Amino acid sequence: MFSKTLPNQRPEDLPDYLTIGDVDVEGLNVLVRSDLNVPLSDGVVVDDFRIRAALPTLVDLVRKGAVVSVCSHLGRPKGRDLTLSLEPVATHMSALTEFEVGFEQGGQITVLENTRFLAGETTNDPETAQWLAEGVDIFVQDAFGSVHRAHASTVGVAERVESIAGLLLDAELKALGRFVDDPDRPYTVVLGGAKVSDKLAVIENLLPKVDRMLIGGAMCFTFLVARGLEVGESLVQDNMVDAVRGLLKGPHGRKLILPVDIATGSRFSEDAERRVVAASDIPEGSVGLDIGPETSAGFWGLINSSASVFWNGPMGVFEWENFRNGTEQVARALAACDGFTAVGGGDSAAALRLLDLDGSVSHLSTGGGAGLLLLAGQVLPGVAVLERWVQ
Predict the structure, then answer these.
(1) Which position among 345, 346, 367, 368 bears the catalytic label?
(2) What angle do CA 288, 294, 295 make, to 5 degrees?
(3) Which residue among 33, 50, 116, 212 is the active-site one?
């Protein structure tokens, strides 16, 4: 497919996609889809984890002589919203690299404006995809955090332009692939966060594959209600209770490990008084804000004895020091585990960085939802589309 494929570069048993190492990009116009969806405060980047993760691919391409443009979404704007412009990202990126970074035009790396300012981005509109592909010789998919979405900038462009995987995407797929192909056992998944509805399908698909699944975060209260317990004013998705009850009573229900104690507050507030109670004895009017110390110790033991661990979602409101213990104990358990450990999801990664433990796990993923779907065996549209370009 490629007019400038390097000779003798690929093995006989081809992968499902090509990578940067398979192609000579010198002098070519290369569009990179990165994940630059980072938090901003007053127009300033406050967490550059994803920018730093995206840079190796961009720098590698520039050093190989490519003319590089990079696109990404940022937030969920309704039309053109300049508070979600990628200009601050371009400014921040410029400070992180020796190469000149321009916004919308100019520079050795050109950062394009937020793809979600385009009306047809999220619907993979053909005209939008064609507009993005105009003048592009090669498309590089490197936004692992977005490959589970069939958008114009993730799938549409790749349907029209010869496409390869970037360094980050390739590394993510290889690392998380260890959980998919033949994970070392015991294999444990730790899930937290707020809503069961966000992860129900993933839980259903993952349960048969894992040895145990530890449930924390606000989502645990829907599970506790499904077991017939009272949870006070804690967050519960009532419309999910029946589905969760089905999981608990199903053939793999024994793999679901729920909290035995909860750290509660009298209200949802950072300065609420912390009180630890049994999960079966949450007082009326109180709010569950973290897993308790007995649960944390139990989770630690299960994680520590695992050969493979994937964690997505905090155990409580970790941003508040008073209710950080559960998340901290899970993070430290992963850091102490001798097995292969991976963490996905923005909040989990943020918790690791807050605790200065981001270098203590085997793999820190840039994608939460995409990682879970990959582990559950789901097709990722932004990866699947790359297969058409393999010779």
Answers:
(1) 346
(2) 60
(3) 50
- Identify whether 43 is a catalytic site residue: no
Cβ-in-10-Å burial (0-12, 13-18, 19+) of 353 comes to middle
Active site residue 50: yes
pTM for this one? Answer: 0.90
Measure the CA–CA gap between 251 and 13, rounded to whole angstroms.
38
List the single range of 11-25, 181-195, 266-280 with lowest mean pLDDT: 11-25
- Alpha carbon separation from 105 to 31, 80, 111, 137 (Å, rounded): 13, 18, 8, 18
Structural domains of the chain sorted by starting position, each given as residue range(s) with its CATH number in brackets: 20-173+381-389 (3.40.50.1260), 185-338 (3.40.50.1260)
pLDDT tens for residues 309-333?
A: 999 999 999 999 999 999 999 999 9
Residues in the chain: 391
8-state DSSP, 144: G
Active-site residue flag, 346: yes
